[in-house]
Amino acid sequence: MKTIEYYMSLPYKMEIVPDIEEGGFIASYPELPGCITCAETMEQIIEYAVDAKREWLAAELQEGRKIPEPENEKYSGQFKLRIPKSLHKLLAEHSKREGISMNQYCMYLLSRNDALFGCGVANLLMEEKKYKEI
After folding, report:
1. Is position 72 within any domain?
2. Distance between CA atoms of residues 24 and 13, nearest Å
């Protein structure tokens, strides 16, 4: 039988998002349905999330339920994308103007967009700073 230590050692994905309504942060583990917690600061949310995962796993083991294990998705770092010829032309022109390959230019655009609009750790830290200033 697998132990709580076994499951705690697995690389479950933790998602942390700002709690817009209440302030602070919410953490969950998508692979562990219902395993969720909240805290006021980024430092607290990580500690609370680990505790919530331990308690969730203990309850599931006690009830004899099957505990899902993290998926090991492999990514090649490549994907094919069909785009309109006009967009292809613009991307080729812009990358040439910048003196880089179109592949590098597209990677730059995707990274920039993710940094501006994604929900990475940097964005969460900025959100935490905003809450502290209020």
Report:
1. no
2. 20
Tell me 119's DSSP state: -
- The domain that holds 15 is classified in CATH as 3.30.160.250
Are 9 and 54 contained in the same domain?
A: yes
Q: pLDDT by residue (tens digit) across 33-47?
A: 999 999 999 889 999
Burial 93-106 (b: 16+ CB within 10 A, else e): eebeeeeeeeeebb
Structure tokens at 65: 């339920």
What is the number of structural domains in the chain? Answer: 2
Q: Is 126 exposed, middle or buried (0-12, 13-18, 19+ CB in 10 A)?
A: exposed
pLDDT tens per residue across span 42-66: 889 999 999 999 999 999 999 999 9
Q: Determine the structural domain holding residue 59 and report its residue range.
A: 4-63
Per-residue CA distances from 38 to 120, 127, 130 (Å): 18, 15, 17
Contacts of 4 (CB under 8 A, 6+ apart): 54, 57, 58, 61
Q: Does any domain span residue 89?
A: yes
